[in-house]
Amino acid sequence: MSPIQSLLQDLHHRYSSLSEGKLASYIPELTKANPDWFGISVVTVDGQSFHVGDVDQQFTIQSISKVFVYGMALEDHGRDRVLKRVGVEPTGDPFNSLIRLDEASKRPDNPMVNAGAIATTSLITGEGPTERLNRLLAMFERYVGRDVYVDVPTFLSERATGHRNRAMAHLMLNFGMINGNIEEALDLYFQQCALLVTGRDLAGMAAALANRGTHPLTGIQAASPDYIREILSVMYTCGMYNFAGEWAYRVGIPAKSGVSGGILAVVPNQAGIAVFSPPLDENGNSVRGLRVLEDLSREYGLHLFDLSLGRCRFGEALLASDGEN
Ligand code: DON
């Protein structure tokens, strides 16, 4: 067996009995997840794939969608216009906090927290809500390589209970950070969060980011290479919420988590990694996901500043590996 496949199997075995963490419950539909679901996937930029566990289990993408919609807003408007509406500073606050929104700039701090993501989604261009949704789905389809669908029960569940998000949208309307119809912007945001994906999909999406926007398995150009640097930068500094600093310190690669239990991580120029396991810690990050990625990073020297290694051991393991092609 290839070294990468065997390490993924070890990690899966090591953490499958870890029972810490809780399912997200503020979106009622998410409590239907099975806490035992656990999958790990790696897709490399040269088209090898390694999978273990529940990698074909569908779940809603939640906050991981923010990464891709940010990329789309950048492509629609360019960096300067997007920066006027959404900053790039980590908050150190929970992902759903609205405390800092009322401070001096009235601009959400970054596109990875809810306020910033709602502002980003409101920037997506299109004639009316259907065209905007269709453009967004088409973008996700390029990243996934097949048709994608919104999970309607989860969308409705969040729409019925998402009062904090609604409050943020109203505040931003008041500050002039969102234009137009905020109910439409919120619906689009709730729909993007309710998109169904698998761990296998997420690893391929991460690999497309690692590969300057081109999906290594389909060859489809999912995003323009022009903004990958911006996307990976905000993932690196803000993708793991109030754990972002510790994540950068310990794991050292751009990543994004979501409350349904996914974590997507990018090893630039090398691979995309996804871990899916629904129980979350107090910051809203998958407990098993954090452990797996921390071990993988240490084992293979993935930390971007692991300069002492000279050459990342992951590359060496890949040369000795023969993943699914
Ligand atoms: O807006 C929300 O609260 C959810 N749709 C997404 C939040 C999320 O995934 C944050 N992740 N840790």
Tell me the name of the CATH homologous superfamily of the largest domain: DD-peptidase/beta-lactamase superfamily
Number of structurally distinct domains = 2
H/E element sequence: HEEEHHHHHHHEHHHEEEHH
CATH topology of the largest domain: Beta-lactamase
Q: Largest sheet at a glance?
A: 5 strands, antiparallel
CATH level-two architecture of the largest domain: 3-Layer(aba) Sandwich
Please indicate the percent range of residues in DSSP E strands (runs of 2 or more): 5-15%
Number of helices: 13
Q: What is the CATH C level class of the largest domain, in words?
A: Alpha Beta
Q: How far apart are the termini?
A: 15 Å
Ligands bound, unique? 6-diazenyl-5-OXO-L-norleucine
Q: For the residues shown, what is the average pLDDT?
A: 94
Helix content: 40-55%
Secondary structure layout:
Elements: H1 3-15, E1 39-44, E2 49-53, E3 59-60, H2 65-77, H3 79-85, H4 114-122, H5 128-144, H6 152-161, H7 163-175, H8 182-193, E4 196-197, H9 199-210, H10 228-238, H11 244-250, E5 255-257, E6 262-267, E7 271-276, H12 287-300, H13 313-319
Antiparallel strand pairs: 1-2, 1-7, 3-4, 5-6, 6-7
Helix pairs in contact: 1-12, 2-3, 2-10, 4-7, 4-8, 5-8, 6-8, 7-8
